[in-house]
Design goal:
By secondary structure, the chain is α/β, with parallel strands linked by helices. Helices cover 32% and strands 18% of the residues. Among the domains are: 4-75 and 245-324 and 425-481, 3-Layer(bba) Sandwich (FAD/NAD(P)-binding domain), CATH 3.50.50; 143-233, Guanine Nucleotide Dissociation Inhibitor, domain 1. Strands 1, 2, 7, 8, 9, 10, 11 and 19 form an 8-stranded mixed β-sheet that branches. It is globular and about 70 Å long. The structure holds flavin-adenine dinucleotide (FAD).
């Protein structure tokens, strides 16, 4: 049996140091030596770890299989960069009950996320080759709105604010209510009918989109659910923005340490076979793992690379084939000189180029790391380049927009969630019609001995809390069958 402390030492190394050795150790363990487990959990992100812990707490023998050389999945803190910036799940709210409870029980410190002092001041805007100070935006010729309430809002806030004002939602489950299904249309359909022009739609939803890529490929119901989720997740007393002291990875690492059963890293699942008595999971290295039940927390993009025998039912296969994730590519730079003092603009800049949104990130007591947070089709463009070329392209764009940054920044790291075969994107983005078609509920119920979880299967919360919620639901469903 692979030594648990060895596994977690590898997990704590975050970037996968030691992973190859751990994977080799895992391979050395033959299936014959292992007693049959009651439950196999696929994926050691928040959903999988929560399901595994809850099942162990209920007395089950659980084995967790994780493809990467680290735990945490889409929670990843870059502890080797200045200020340990987050590359994945960043902020939790006071309403993240499961996250906060799990952290408290494991002694993981969650604290208010302090803003960086060098990020004070409103974000500047760079649009169509012009750099515009926030205070000039409402009266600027490039501002396409005539309604004074929309004209006053910065481009990065106008879309969400306009949709929020139209939301009929009053609770976290409204987005799945059959009574709302008729409104599962695109943002372009809803706002276009209210007179929004293509220019306005592009500005509000097509540049650095937090969800989807444009006003045409995201559901209004999802946007309303996001607004409702934000309201609920920040409604409790306390700071609205919280994070784990030292990096959010601290929580999944502590959860993995708390497991009693084996957590095997480097186990890339390729095939899942179910029969009357159990489930066999076959990994890329040919190992076979057998248990009575399976909890699968892989994102749909990763599930597409797994064979199921028997095949998934048509609705679930459609869900796997078509549920997609927000395109996100993050470029991190060391800052050798505070270039924003040279051009008099705020360091934060919202751009319509490959530089995406420019922010200073990391612990406020540490030197700043410059982050270009790139979404949508701009992320697609970067993803078509080799990582070194992509980060060089972002750097060239920053220098073009802000000549003072020339020679002041150095590339550190490029993280593309879309290119990552274990993720395929950042977080789920529901397209128009998918909710109405029932894809949102495709994994509500077990399929034989298979129970699906993961952020994309969450019924109420989103993001990290949604992942934990889904793991909890999956654990209960397995317990009911044990
Ligand atoms: C850039 C970014 C910013 C975000 N910001 C926030 C935020 O501020 N607040 C918030 O609440 N949420 C945020 N999120 C979302 C949040 O991080 C995710 O929703 C959540 O972590 C998903 O957890 P999960 O367990 O469902 O999936 P994952 O974390 O993806 O876990 C799935 C696991 O399965 C593994 N896996 C995949 N394929 C295989 C395979 N074939 N074999 C074995 N293992 C496999 C993966 O390696 C992974 O560890 C953000 C995400 C990103 C990427």
């Amino acid at each position: 049996m692979i030594d648990r402390r060895q596994v977690m030492a590898g997990a704590a190394a975050l970037a996968g140091a030691g992973a190859a050795a751990l994977a080799a150790a895992a391979r050395a363990q033959t299936a014959a030596q292992a007693p049959p487990d009651e439950v196999i959990v696929l994926g050691a992100g928040l959903a999988g770890l929560n399901a595994a812990l809850l099942l162990e707490e209920a007395g089950a023998r659980v084995r967790v299989l994780e493809g990467r050389g680290r735990v945490g999945g889409r929670v990843r803190s870059l502890t080797d960069l200045p200020g340990s910036p987050e590359a994945g799940g960043s902020i939790v709210g006071s309403g993240y009950a499961r996250f906060l409870d799990r952290a408290r029980r494991l002694g993981v410190v969650v604290e208010p996320a302090r803003p960086r002092p060098d990020m004070a001041g409103a974000m500047g805007i760079s649009l169509l080759g012009q750099t515009i100070r926030a205070e000039h935006w409402p009266g600027h010729a490039a501002n396409p709105f005539s309604d004074p309430r929309l004209k006053a809002l910065p481009p990065y806030a106008v879309g969400a604010a306009a949709l929020r004002a139209l939301s009929p939602f009053q609770s976290l489950d409204d987005w799945r209510s059959p009574g709302m299904a008729a409104q599962d249309v695109s943002v372009a359909d809803l706002l276009g009918a209210r007179g929004w022009t293509p220019d306005q739609l592009r500005l509000g939803f097509g540049i650095n989109p937090g969800y989807g890529n444009s006003a045409h490929d995201v559901s209004v119901l999802m946007h309303w659910h996001i607004a409702e989720n934000l309201k609920v997740m920040t409604a409790q007393p306390g700071a609205a923005a919280l994070h784990v002291k030292g990096g959010n990875m601290g929580l999944p690492v502590a959860m993995a340490r708390a497991l009693k059963g084996p957590l095997l890293l480097g186990q890339v699942v390729r095939r899942v076979e179910s029969d009357a008595t159990g489930v066999t999971v076959i990994t890329e290295d040919g190992r076979r793992h057998r248990a009575r039940h399976l909890v699968c927390t892989l994102p749909t993009s990763a599930l597409r690379l797994v064979d199921f025998a028997p095949a998934l039912p048509p609705l679930q296969q459609l869900a796997v084939d078509s549920i997609d994730y927000n395109r996100t590519c993050l470029a991190y730079f060391a800052v050798d000189r505070p270039f924003w003092e040279g051009d008099g603009l705020p360091p934060a800049l919202w751009t319509d180029t490959l530089a995406g949104r420019l922010l200073l990130t990391g612990d406020p007591d540490a030197p700043p790391t410059l982050l270009a947070y790139v979404n949508g089709f701009a992320a697609d463009r970067l993803d078509r380049m080799e990582p070194a070329a992509a980060i060089a392209a972002v750097q060239a764009d920053i220098a073009r927009l802000r000549p003072a940054a020339q020679g002041a920044i150095r590339p550190l790291r490029l993280v593309s969630w879309q290119r990552d075969p274990f993720a395929g994107g950042a977080y789920v983005s529901w397209k128009p019609g998918q909710i109405r078609a029932g894809l949102v509920a495709a994994f509500d119920q077990p399929i034989g001995r298979l129970v699906f979880a993961g952020e994309h299967t969450a019924q109420l919360a989103r993001g990290m809390e949604g992942a934990l919620e889904s793991g909890e639901r999956a654990a209960v469903q397995v317990m009911e069958r044990m």
